[in-house]
Amino acid sequence: MAGNLTLTMIKPDAVKKNAIGGILKMMNDGGFKIVAMKYMHLSKTKAEAFYAVHKERPFYGELTEFMSSGPIVAAILEKDNAVEDFRKLIGATNPAEAEDGTIRKVYATSIGENAVHGSDSDENAQIEGDFFFSQQERF
Ligand code: GDP
Q: Which residue from 16, 49, 57, 92 could staple onto 97, CB 3.0 to 4.6 Å apart?
């Protein structure tokens, strides 16, 4: 059975664009409830740890540099079928391919600076949620 939690980050490009409010509204309007939330600046080391699965990818250096370039908002979101439905709401990795009405279509700049993160599986949603939040920080 599909889980009901996913982990998102509003990435540094979207925070710089003053888009936190607009993006949270799209998440709420999409039926997602905020279970946990933090506004923080990831160190390079923390960004490298979060994206360790992408270590071998050619863009790993660029990605971790970008994700530690400014503050982010991390949040755990709740909805039935959360991972799949949230991936639909954020749209394709490359905003040029993102459908109308998706968060990346509205707010992303490029394939690297693409405004939001969404977990790609229930297993990763749990790992990524635990990366940012203790049990006491979830409501
Ligand atoms: P996602 O699940 O849609 O976020 O995409 P991936 O898991 O494939 O990649 C993770 C993140 O790495 C993306 O959201 C982008 O921020 C970044 N990324 C992916 N492909 C590229 C690329 O070709 N160049 C750069 N600079 N970053 C990329």
A: 92
